[in-house]
């Protein structure tokens, strides 16, 4: 599977970027050359240099260290949001096809309603009103992205719900849960994997938006989105300040999208062959 | 669409005239609109229920705040009864949604101002940004998609597809940064913050709104262009197109009268799904450009625990989004008779 993916040049580049991001997320806080919270009063708003590689912010904190230290929270938050969305979306998505029309109708309307919520405003409202914190933010984002997983799962499940081999299994007396486990899950997994990869990218950018607004993470703690916010405030003194965190976010999101595309393409070839 | 004025005269054999076809179409369309409404209403109630439950789950209680620090438990309990907070959640919701439908969104717990008044002050700003973003997104998204779809496989198509792929991995605030850097800092053409009401100075309004709106629309442009391109490529390879070419219809007529109507389905559907992102996403651009819009009101109120105002902004947003969706769905029904059967 992975060897197949590596045939795509974009997937290779994506793997390299994601490996770097993974290293940053796991070891970032230990790799930081300076304390991300330490303030150096003698070096405010420094341009990139030898002592502070990416310069310092308005409080004299090392931007490079803050970027490294913020990786863990930014990556972990998006991964956990996707996991929550995955569970909340895939299970009802599967069941909506196999559990009768009333259950299906209610599920579809709830998903419709979730899709009609103003995404970021709702995530902000939910996070703030449940007690502004990272866990609340991840739950809010996780719940709001469930429609994406629900729809993908449902579409895949619908495409085989009336297939002859499913009917044969049912005639032979297989229970719904056995059919789901034996036949449906295998069919649903590839599109869900594609959705998960691209949604992780989307979540990273959503989490960055939230932390940018000071939602989910309390200000002194560094995150990629929070770094962007402080950089924007100092745009006139350090016009290239936002470049590093923005590039990191964009590169990660691009890598996840490229991975999703490669996954989709390799899946298509497999079914075609 | 109008009601039938006179009964059709009895006929020996059913003769299908242009009028009866139009009537039939009208009836089918009415049924389609009815069906769409039949789905929209439950969705409205579920979405507002979720919004209402948010306040309940938050556990924030206005009674203690109103009563003050020195109040006895009895006073707090009395205020809770007055506010109806001791009733089951379902009744509380019905009471609240009844008020919402009459235009009463409650009053702010923070300063006692009616929530609807606070929202109406901020609404024009958010509507300006989201509206201009929608317009820019639709015009450029459909334009680029049309070009890419008609010239599919060509150099222009590849350039547009690459642009769409690149741009869709950019979060809107990154786009906003780049635009501020170019148009405000280097060229100095547009302001990087602040809002000017349209009635005061239309040109100032456009200057203030354009960067945030463009930053927000980029994602819409990319997605619409991709969907329309795919739709066009599929529709252009259909047999009826070959038939039309054989019959000698002009390329332009084939494209705009026959193909576009069938190819626009996925693009319109995506457009409907983008509206919540536009209205919700305005909150980030409002923060970047320091505009006191509805998103900012919602964020500030949420951080203060001002439940009625947060719920009010969410309800207004949901109504806007549902209205846009309703329009897109009806448009789909008009453009594509087949879409009516699907819904």
TrEMBL record, chain A:
InterPro entries: BP-dependent_transpt_permease (IPR050366), MetI-like (IPR000515), MetI-like_sf (IPR035906), OppC_N (IPR025966)
Signal peptide boundaries: none
Major localization listed first in the record, in broad terms: membrane
Keyword Cell membrane (UniProt): yes
Membrane topology listed for this record: Multi-pass membrane protein
PROSITE patterns, per database record: ABC_TM1
Gene3D superfamilies: MetI-like
Keyword Transport among UniProt keywords: yes
GO cellular component, one term: plasma membrane
Organism of this sequence: Novosphingobium resinovorum
GO BP field: transmembrane transport
Domain ABC transmembrane type-1 stretches: 71-260
This protein's UniProt keywords: Cell membrane, Membrane, Transmembrane, Transmembrane helix, Transport
Similarity field: Belongs to the binding-protein-dependent transport system permease family.
Segments passing through the bilayer: 12-32, 75-98, 110-128, 134-152, 192-219, 239-260
UniProt-recorded name of the protein: ABC transporter permease
Subcellular location: Cell membrane
């Amino acid at each position: 599977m992975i060897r197949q993916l590596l045939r795509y040049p974009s997937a290779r580049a994506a793997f390299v970027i994601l490996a770097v991001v993974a290293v940053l997320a796991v070891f970032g806080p230990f790799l930081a050359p300076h304390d991300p919270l330490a303030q150096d009063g003698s070096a405010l708003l420094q341009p990139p240099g030898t002592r502070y590689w990416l310069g310092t912010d308005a409080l004299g904190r090392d931007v490079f260290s803050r970027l490294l230290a913020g990786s863990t929270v930014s990556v972990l938050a998006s991964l956990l949001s996707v996991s929550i969305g995955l569970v909340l979306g895939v299970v009802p998505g599967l069941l909506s096809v196999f559990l009768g029309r009333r259950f299906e109708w209610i599920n579809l309307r709830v998903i419709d309603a979730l899709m009609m919520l103003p995404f970021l405003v709702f995530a902000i409202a939910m996070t703030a009103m449940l007690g502004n914190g990272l866990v609340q933010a991840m739950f809010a984002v996780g719940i709001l992205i469930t429609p994406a997983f629900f729809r993908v799962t449902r579409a895949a499940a619908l495409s085989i719900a009336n297939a002859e081999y499913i009917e044969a299994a049912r005639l032979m007396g297989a229970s719904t849960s056995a059919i789901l486990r034996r036949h449906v899950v295998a069919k649903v997994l590839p599109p869900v994997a594609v959705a998960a990869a691209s949604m992780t990218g989307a979540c990273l950018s959503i989490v960055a938006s939230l932390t940018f607004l000071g939602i989910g993470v309390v200000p002194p703690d560094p995150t990629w989105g929070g770094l962007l916010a402080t950089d924007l405030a100092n745009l006139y003194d350090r016009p290239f300040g936002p470049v590093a965190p923005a590039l990191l976010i964009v590169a990660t999101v691009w890598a996840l999208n490229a991975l999703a595309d490669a996954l989709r393409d390799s899946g298509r070839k497999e079914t075609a062959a | 669409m109008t009601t039938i004025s006179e009964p059709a005269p009895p006929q020996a054999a059913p003769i299908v005239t242009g009028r009866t076809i139009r009537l039939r179409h009208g009836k089918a369309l009415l049924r389609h609109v009815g069906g769409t409404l039949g789905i929209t209403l439950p969705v409205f109630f579920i979405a507002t229920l979720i919004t209402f439950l948010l306040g309940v789950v938050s556990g924030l209680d206005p009674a203690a705040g109103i009563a003050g620090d020195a109040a006895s438990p009895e006073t707090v309990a009395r205020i809770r009864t007055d506010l109806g907070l001791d009733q089951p959640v379902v009744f509380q919701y019905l009471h609240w949604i009844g008020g919402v439908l009459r235009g009463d969104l409650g009053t702010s717990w923070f300063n006692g101002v009616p929530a609807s008044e606070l929202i109406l002050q901020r609404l024009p700003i958010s509507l300006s940004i989201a509206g201009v973003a929608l317009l820019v997104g639709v015009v450029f998204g459909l334009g680029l998609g049309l070009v890419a779809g008609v010239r599919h496989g060509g150099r222009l198509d590849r350039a547009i597809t690459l642009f769409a792929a690149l741009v869709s991995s950019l979060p809107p605030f990154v786009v906003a940064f780049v635009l501020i850097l170019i148009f405000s800092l280097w060229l100095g053409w547009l302001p990087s913050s602040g809002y000017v009401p349209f009635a005061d100075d239309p040109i100032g309004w456009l200057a203030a709104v354009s960067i945030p709106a463009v930053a927000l629309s980029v994602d819409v442009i990319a997605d619409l262009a991709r969907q329309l391109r795919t739709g066009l490529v599929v529709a252009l390879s259909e047999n009826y197109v070959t038939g039309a070419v054989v019959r000698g219809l002009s390329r332009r007529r084939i494209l705009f009268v026959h193909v576009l109507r069938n190819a626009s389905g996925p693009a319109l559907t995506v457009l409907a799904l983008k509206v919540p992102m536009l209205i919700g996403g305005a909150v980030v651009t409002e923060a970047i450009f320091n505009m006191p819009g509805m998103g900012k009101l919602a964020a500030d109120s949420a951080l203060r625990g001002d439940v009625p105002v947060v719920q009010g902004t969410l309800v207004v947003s949901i109504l806007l989004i549902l209205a846009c969706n309703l329009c897109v769905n009806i448009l789909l029904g008009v453009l594509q008779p087949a879409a009516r059967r699907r819904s």
